[in-house]
Design goal:
Pfam families: Sortase
InterPro entries: Sortase, Sortase_Class_E, Sortase_dom-sf, Sortase_E
Number of strands: 8
GO molecular function: hydrolase activity
Transmembrane segments: 12-29
CATH superfamily: Sortase
Number of domains: 1
Helix content: 25-40%
Region (Disordered): 85-104
Length: 218
């Protein structure tokens, strides 16, 4: 009787382990493949819109409108940024917090991105250091931000995406800021990893068609 129970528990543990493994494979690798394809599509569509000269003045939810380049993540690392941070939108790439500033504007240009799975755009967010460049490319300009701080906060701490990071949600912006958020630690949603930066310069594409020198920094 005891042996039968132990055998049953052992089989149950093996089954549970197999199910857990399949879930991890799906969440990490399968969703990465799907999101990578979706990211490629929205990036291609955005480049085509820019080439045709028909970009929308205000992006719709889920629509790509800019590219973010992070040299620290890799020489050619770039992702299209979509409007919105709902789950469906974040499956396509980093999402812009609706209502936050647009690239280069006074205020807080704030983005969220998955850390593990669904493309994992911000998996290496923790490697950013003060002074690292984050370059946001729009249809006609390059906006160079410099990382200032990295913090870990509770998910309820919405002040990180306020017009002035850490300030009131309806407060006045004291400058042009950048915020990037993702889950922390990896494989958990318990906390949020937050990287803040400040705008260093904006340069038009007519002046720098191949991009600013910051793109070459490592």
């Amino acid at each position: 009787m005891t042996r039968t129970i132990l055998r049953g528990l052992s089989e149950l543990a093996v089954t549970a382990g197999a199910v857990l493994l399949l879930f991890v494979v799906y969440e990490v690798w399968v969703t990465d493949l799907w999101s990578d394809r979706a990211q490629d599509q929205v990036a291609e569509e955005l480049r085509e819109d820019w080439t045709s000269g028909t970009p929308d003045a205000e992006p719709d939810s889920g629509q790509a409108f800019a590219f973010v380049h992070v040299p620290r993540f890799g020489e050619d690392w770039t992702r299209a940024v979509v409007e919105g941070t709902d789950p469906d939108e974040l499956e396509d790439g980093p999402g812009h917090y609706a209502g936050s500033a647009m690239p280069g504007e006074r205020g807080n240009f704030a983005m969220a991105g998955h850390r593990v799975g669904r493309g994992s755009p911000f998996i290496a967010l923790d490697v950013l250091r003060p002074g690292d460049p984050v370059v946001v490319e729009t249809v006609d300009a390059w906006h160079v931000y410099r990382v200032t701080t990295t913090t870990v906060v509770d998910p309820s701490q919405s002040s990180v995406v306020a017009p002035t990071p850490g300030g009131a949600a309806n407060g006045e912006a004291t400058g042009a800021f950048l915020t990037m958020t993702t889950c922390h630690p990896k494989f958990s949603t318990r906390e949020r990893l937050v990287v803040h930066g400040e705008l260093e310069t904006s340069v038009g594409k007519a002046e720098a068609p191949d991009g600013p020198a910051a793109l070459e920094e490592v």
